[in-house]
Automatic annotation (TrEMBL):
GO molecular-function term, one example from the UniProt record: hydrolase activity
Any matching Pfam family: DLH
Protein name as it appears in the record: Dienelactone hydrolase
Keywords: Hydrolase
Length: 144
């Protein structure tokens, strides 16, 4: 590890420690952010949970083993990420919950053509289930 990488890691860990004083900390990301959430789950000890929506870089991060409960949401018809290699990579991690929906990439974003309300609602409920199971207080429902 270079001095710069060591300093960056120290800053991330200090931030995580500071956030944990307020309660459980989780990471959630979409697309590239889903890949960041996966990498964080494997590199940052102290996260309470991670949720990855259609992370396109998951195959290249397969060697990262999550250190916290992790949930991955995928669209079965997603043509924007390498679905076969993504599924193959995730099979290496039996403790990770992977849910696949009959939808495309971005099914959770109402600004995209692939938006699917039913899949979005189900993924949201499953995300809340994981977070509540990890002691994270339920956020307000959509529209509250």
């Amino acid at each position: 590890m270079s001095p710069e990488q060591g300093a960056e890691t120290s800053v991330k860990l200090a931030l995580l420690d500071e956030l944990r004083h307020a309660g459980p900390v989780f990471m959630l990301g979409y697309c590239y952010g889903g890949s960041i959430a996966w990498a964080s789950a494997g590199r940052l000890n102290g996260l309470s949970a991670a949720v990855c929506y259609y992370g396109g870089k998951l195959p290249t991060l397969a060697s990262e083993t999550p250190l916290c409960p992790t949930l991955v949401h995928l669209g079965r018809d997603d043509s924007e990420i390498p679905m076969r290699s993504t599924r193959d990579a995730l099979e290496q991690h039996s403790a990770v919950e992977v849910l696949t929906y009959p939808a495309g990439h971005g099914f959770n974003s109402d600004r995209r053509a692939d938006f699917d309300q039913q899949c979005s609602d189900l993924a949201f409920r499953e995300t809340l289930r994981l977070l509540e199971k990890q002691g994270i207080q339920r956020p307000p429902a959509r529209g509250e």
